[in-house]
Specification:
alpha+beta, 8 helices, Pseudouridine synthase, Archaeosine Trna-guanine Transglycosylase, Chain: A, domain 4, 18 strands, 3 domains, five-stranded mixed β-sheet
């Protein structure tokens, strides 16, 4: 199996634990996930099987969409209900229009400082390990893009909203920034659901129980939650190669495909209808390989 399975990660499961369950259910040794979700978060966790693992970075870099509930005025050590309470302020005086204005001011490109309770690594160790030891590591701010920050409802002190954001966005930090802008000290997440990871906007997801059932009954491939690797690159320009062109790319040669002169940038490569990898293409039609599926390369070289 070399495709992608969309798992609805359960509450209280880490992404690593979810990955282990999928490994045990499918008896697949090589797999990875397309973007960490906190244990207290639920929702879409793409699992990349076999050769798909080598293309996981495209999911890490993808846009994501969340549905969030937060308690305004509550500040904890972790930014959610798992941590110790640092402070708590009343927010009954806040009205919906004030909150919407503050959310609008946090839309677009903003700077965020990654939280200490995160999987971001410092000297090879996740920041949360330092945080658990009571240590505070100096972190650099990073630019992220908030493409949508929509308030769904406000019933003090609980706020429900939707966030569409770029890679690297910390939702806990965003809601804490909102609480600071509103003058209540911060906010703590009470619920976080990842609705989709681009480009899987309206795809099915399976719970671990549903995955087990589907796999046992040989229904996984027809579930709608198992996707072939090429679905990840459905929006890419496509270049269909001849066997000789594909073989030359496999041997590290530069190939020019003159019929694609109007295409520029990264393209998806296909051979006889099968996705074989990615390449950059110049305005002159020159291909430079980014990544090829190893099984395809081995077959091409063996046929030489």
């Amino acid at each position: 199996m070399n495709g992608i399975i969309l798992i609805n990660k359960p509450y209280f499961y880490s992404s690593f634990k979810t990955l282990s369950y999928v490994r045990n259910i499918l008896s697949v040794r090589k797999l990875g996930h397309g973007g960490t979700l906190d244990p207290l978060a639920v929702g879409m966790l793409p699992i990349c099987l076999g050769e798909s693992r080598k293309f996981c970075s495209h999911l890490l870099d993808a846009d994501k969409h969340y549905t969030v509930t937060a308690k305004l005025g509550l500040v904890t050590t972790t930014g959610d209900l798992e941590g110790d309470i640092v402070s708590e302020a009343g927010c009954n005086s806040l009205n919906l229009s004030d909150i919407e204005l503050a959310a609008n001011n946090l839309s677009g490109f903003i700077e965020q400082i990654p939280p200490m309770y995160s999987a971001l690594k410092h000297n090879g160790k996740p920041l949360y390990e330092y945080a658990r030891q009571g240590l505070d590591v100096k972190r650099k701010s990073r630019a992220v893009e908030i493409k949508k920050f929509k308030i769904i409802s406000w019933q003090a002190p609980y706020l429900r909203c939707e966030v569409h954001c770029s890679k690297g966005t910390y939702i806990r930090t965003l809601l804490d920034m909102l609480g600071n802008k509103l003058g209540v000290g911060g906010a703590a997440l009470t619920y976080l659901q990842r609705d989709w990871v681009a480009p899987f906007f309206e795809s099915n997801m399976l719970t671990l129980e549903e995955l087990d059932y589907s796999f046992t009954k040989n229904k996984l491939l027809s579930s709608g939650a198992y996707l072939p690797l090429e679905k990840l690159f459905a929006k890419y320009n496509r270049v269909d190669l001849s066997y000789i062109e594909a073989r030359d790319l496999g041997f590290g040669k530069v190939v020019t495909v003159g019929s694609y002169n109007d295409v520029n940038g990264e393209v998806a490569l296909f051979l006889e209808g099968d996705f074989i990898g990615l390449a950059n293409i110049s305005t002159s039609g020159c291909l430079k390989v980014r990544r090829l599926r190893q099984s395809i390369v081995d077959k091409l070289c063996a046929r030489n």
